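Box 3.1 A note on notation
Throughout this textbook, protein chains are presented in two layers. The first layer is the amino acid sequence; the second is a token string describing backbone geometry. Keep the layers aligned when reading.
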Amino acid sequence: MNNKIGGITMDKLEEYSYLWESDNYVIFEDEVARSILLLEGGEMKFFLLEDEFLNSAIINKMLELGCKRYGSIEEIRRKYYVER
């Protein structure tokens, strides 16, 4: 039996488990939206999915597991690039 969260199967969600298993992927959340960012090699790149429901399910899973969340690009620069 394959459990579902909304229209997303747990197997489909697990295909993206590398997002919450790596410190290089973080959540960027401002007053407009929540997004996933890849922080790698001194660059910030948005991780985009066309399926908004899947994107939301992944972000919720990342939050549930305690992935880092930032509210501004400046905060990311200070914490990620200065502390490392």
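DSSP finds four helices and six strands in the chain. Residues 52-64 form the longest helix (13 residues).
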